[in-house]
Predict the 3D structure of the following.
Amino acid sequence: MMKNITAAITLLISQSLLADTGQRPDVQSVAAGKPLYEQYCLSCHKENGVGEKPIPPLIKEPGYLTAMPLNETSHAWHHGDEQLVATILSGLQRTQRMPAFKGTLTEQQASQIVAYIKSLWSDRIIACQGPKHMSCM
Ligand code: HEC
């Protein structure tokens, strides 16, 4: 009995930490995520997630990728919330430029940043977020 209750509570807590793919983020998470985005992400992904402009001498370097937009003009919304959180915490295989924030940010903070990023997306894009994007638009 106690075990079941503990399991149920653990599930509830982990679900509340992870934002929901396909749903608008709640205002508290967005408010918590914005300053974190500004501190850790803005330098590359820029104000309102518009992404960086290619820097001519650098784009020729092997492994150098330009930080894409995280607003709805690129494909960040093709990923579910959990995958976005994982990208933030673990970085990307394809480029060293996207840092792994594990040790700097908690899972909850990463999830709040995802909430902020999603606040930049329209309802239509949010409704098509994640694996559904292929059949949705
Ligand atoms: C030093 C520059 C830099 C910083 C700082 C940075 N990123 Fe990135 N990010 C990149 C680059 C470069 C890529 C890969 C671009 C590509 O694959 O073409 C990337 C890719 C991503 C992707 C993958 C998007 C997709 O559509 O696949 C996400 C999500 C992302 N970044 C989120 C963040 C968040 C959130 C932060 C802050 C916690 C952050 N990044 C900080 C450079 C950066």
